Amino acid sequence: LQPSFLSANNIQDILTQAAPLALVVLGQAFVILVRGLDLSVASLMASVAVLATAFNATSDVMIPVIFVAAILASAVIGLINGLLVTKRNVSPFLATLAMMIVLQGVRFYYTQGSPSGSLPEGFRWLGAGRILGLPVNVVALTLCFAVLGWLLHKSSFGRKIYITGGNPKAADLVGISSDRVTIICYVICSVMAGIAGLFLVGFVGTVDNWVGRGYELDAIVACVIGGIALTGGKGTLWGAAAGAFILVLIFNIVIIVGLPV
To answer: Which of 24, 108, 184, 203 sits at a 20 to 30 Å CA gap from 99?
Structure first.
């Protein structure tokens, strides 16, 4: 219907737009595989974006520092989520929903509703730049996918994830700490959301209190599309990533064909 759909520019746009969502989906897949979900990822993305501007940096030399700070902060949030779910027996829905609200409150209190500060110019390159014709964030996604794919599908920890998701009681009986596995999965999810938030703010070019809005539901939907079972213990990272690209592809088709959104 639209020849421009298959143009090189449109394909690159699809890849660039899909990469931040796919990063979140990779993390969300780990949580869903252990019978959980994380509704705080979008709020965490926005909080990380605000954190990045808090440095008020103008030099690209500060980009690694910002990334380290964002990853550490995200890991702490994931740890809290995991502890609430495992040690306090709070349902994943309520625990992560509460975290979403807390992060939003802290973010609005800090920014007074209007984020200020600056980001190094290099962030724009991270979000929308190219390496050998490929979007930078797609290259980053590929690296993350390789690491997490090995962790989930080739390592002993990955087998523990599937066992825990399939039957937590059976996992405990065979000597696997299902609580520890679940907590690590929540940390992975939050770290991936934090990284995605930094790449997304580079793509958008501006920071506001709603960066990543809607990604929490999009990530869950993409996981389900990709074959990750909400009951846990079933699914692959390949399927989750494919679900993210399918979702963005559908949005792109709706816009390029001119259907109402």
So the answer is: 203
